Structure formats: structure tokens, C-alpha cells
Amino acid sequence: MMLLNYGTLVTEFVLQGFSELPRLRLPLFGCFFLYIVALTGSAAIIAVVSRSASLRSPMCFFLCNLAATDIVRTSSALPKVLAGLASAENTISFPGCTAQLFFLTWSASSELLLLTVMAYDRYTAICRPLHSSSRMSPRRCRSLAVGVRAVCAFNGSLHAGLMTRPSFCGPNVVAHFFCESPPLLLLSCSPTLVNSILTVLADAFYGVVHFLLTLVPYGCPVTRRRRAFSTCSSHLLAVSVRYSAVLCARISPASSCSPERSKGSAALYTMLSPTRNPISYSLRNMEVTRALGRLVQALLHPGVRGLPP
User: Fold this and answer.
1) How far is CA 253 from CA 1, 158, 169, 248, 267, in A?
2) The G-protein coupled receptors family 1 profile domain covers which part of the protein (predicted)?
């Protein structure tokens, strides 16, 4: 076998998925249902916010960005999971694996940064209402969204690019249901210290630093205005579940990666999190719910064009 340009003898990987649990194959097809729910919910949010003139707040703008991020994350992982459940062997090429690693890293880190920005928006709207319009102007919101995408694209490119440095010349079975840095590094037959250090530092930055930056802005609305607790509580629950999965799955060196723990935690942020986000952040918002109702009516009655403001 010829040595490829990126210094590896392995041309494809086999995603183990849940093959060690054959009795769960049928229940795991529920992933298809979660995939459809996540796509439908996220697409509905984008459609509602885009078509309704009344939903032009910073929160709705970032909800659209979060929904788009959820679509990318679920579409990067779940189709391959379903393919693995339907076939005896689920393979992915080396370039395909690095591409999946990029999009999953980019979308996952984008969500964490967007949650931080949304927490700051809630803080300004509730605790600094007189300054909210200037601090979260449409121009600043667009700049924040572009900045989040750019920073996370750099992070994803760095992880995917560095994954081409190690040599893979032995086993090619990835103990996961998608391509992720820790299980991939376990298959390398060359030193992976640089990759492991970068993975831990990046996950600590996104999983610890931004977790604290997200919690702090929610402290003021919850403590100063109890009425805001009902609004912020669902957000806090979603944030806690999301970051708990990240901390459990990623804050560890590759050498101590536990396949069972990694798969269970990854299922939370690739399957359940995109399904829960539309409910936690949108359907509990009365303005979004009413706009969604108007959109459904418009679809049921095609003669009515557009959505009323």
C-alpha cells in the first residue's frame, strides 16, 4: 500500500458505532426520529424568524444562528449513525473523517459561543434595558455572529489540520459513532502529544471558560428579578446539560478516553441537544410560538400570503 501525502497507511476508518450492543439496534433507530425532530424544529425557527417582522430582536437573531448550527451538527453525525445501524460495517474515508471532524468541531464550538452571547443579551435586556438597544444593536449582533463563526472555523480547521500529522498504520476501527479527536488519536502509531495538548486546551477554553462566562450573566436576572427566573431557568437547564456533556466527553487526554462514556456524552450533544434547543429557547417564547402558529396557518391556507407583523 502506498504512503499517502498526509503520512498514513490508513485510507479509511471503520466507525464502531453501537455494534457491540446488537440488541439495541432497533431502539437506536429512534435516532432517525430525533434527527427529523431536530431538523424540523430548527428549520421552523429559521422560517418563522425570517418571515415575521415582529421577531427582529437580538435573541431571535441568535436563535436563528443557533438553529442553523444545530442543523449542521446533526447532519454531520446522525446520517452516518443511521448508515451504521443499517449495515454491518460503517466505513468513512480519511478525508471524509477529517471533514466530519471539522464540521462537528465548528458547529459544537459555535453553539457554546452563541450560548454565551445569548446569555449576555438576556443580561442587557433584563438588567440594563436602557442600554440594551445600543449594546446589542443589529450591527453589533451581526458582528458577533460573524466573529463566532470565524473563531470556531479556525478552531475546527486547526483540529482537522493537525489530525493529518500523526501516522495511522495499524488498527483503523474508531471506538465511536463519528470521527472525534480522542478516539482517533488512540489509533495513531506516532506521537500525538501536540494533538492531545491542543484538544485539552481547546476543550477547557470552550467547556470551562465559556461555561462560566455563560453562567455569570444569568446571575443578575435570576437574583434581581424573580420574574425572569421562569424565562432564564429553561435556558440555564439547556446550558447545564450541554456543558455537562462537553465536560464529561472531552475534558480528558486521549489516553484516558473511555468509549462508553464518550459515546453516551456525545449522544447528548449530537442528538438530544439539537432536539431540545428549539423547545428550550423558542417554543417557550410566546412571540415565537404565536409567529409559528401564524406560519402554520399560512401553510394550511396558501391564499394568505406572508405573516402579519
Assistant:
1) 31, 17, 21, 12, 20
2) 41-281
Q: How many domains does the chain have?
A: 1
The span from the CA of 236 to the CA of 127, in Å, is 17
- What is the CATH classification number for the domain harbouring 119? 1.20.1070.10
Instruction: Give residue 257's pLDDT.
Output: 52
User: What number is the average pLDDT over the span 230-235?
Assistant: 61
Cross-strand bridge partners of residue 173: 14
The pTM of this model reads 0.81
SS (H, E, C) 241-260: HHHHHHHHHHCCCHHHCCHH
Residues comprising the chain, all counted: 309
Does 88 reside within a domain?
yes
> What SS3 state is found at 171?
coil
Task: Please check whether residue 179 is in contact with residue 100, taking contact to mean a CB–CB distance below 8 angstroms.
Answer: yes
Asked if pLDDT for residue 7 goes beyond 50, the answer is no
Residue 17 per-residue DSSP state: T
User: For residue 139, what is its C-alpha cell?
Assistant: 450591527
Distance, CA of 262 to CA of 271 (rounded, Å): 14
Q: What is the DSSP letter of 2?
A: P
User: 86 pLDDT exceeds 50?
Assistant: yes
Q: What DSSP designation does 136 have?
A: T
Confidence of residue 301 (pLDDT cuts 50, 70, 90): low
Residue 3 banded pLDDT, cuts 50, 70, 90: very low
Task: List the domain range (segments joined by +) for residue 44.
Answer: 12-284
Separation CA 283–CA 286 (nearest Å): 7
* Backbone CA torsion sign across 47, 52, 56, 60: negative
pLDDT of residue 260: 62
